[in-house]
Amino acid sequence: MVCLGNICRSPLAEGILKDKICKNDIDAKVDSAGTAAYHVGEGADKRSVMVAKKNGVDISQHSARKFTTGDFKTYDLIYAMDSENYQNIMAMARTEDEKAKVKLLMNEALPNENISVPDPYYGGDRGFENVYQMIDKACDRIIEERLK
Asked: Model's pTM, two decimal places?
């Protein structure tokens, strides 16, 4: 799960998907990162932590990190939160196999619509709730596909 700074959207996506994986007894590894190093080592934005907690997901131990080319080797799928981060990740891909791993998260819930999860950082609390709901729907679809 990848966004810009790894403090708002991608930690939520990581936490939501981990929670669903655990509840469905699926063996998978989930992590998150940012394409920029602005917040490396910082925790998730307090508003992300609050909206996650309100929905029964704990992301309080999150520590931001930067996406690296090594992530292509470690992960089978790489979900970008928006088109800008998608392009940034694609620019780092060295092979067609690595490019094939990169997806826009919301295309899981709304195939081929290329909708971005908006960055709630400069918005109010309601923006974080909306982002949570969007990511939750996409993660439901990811789980449904794994259970087929």
From this structure: 0.96
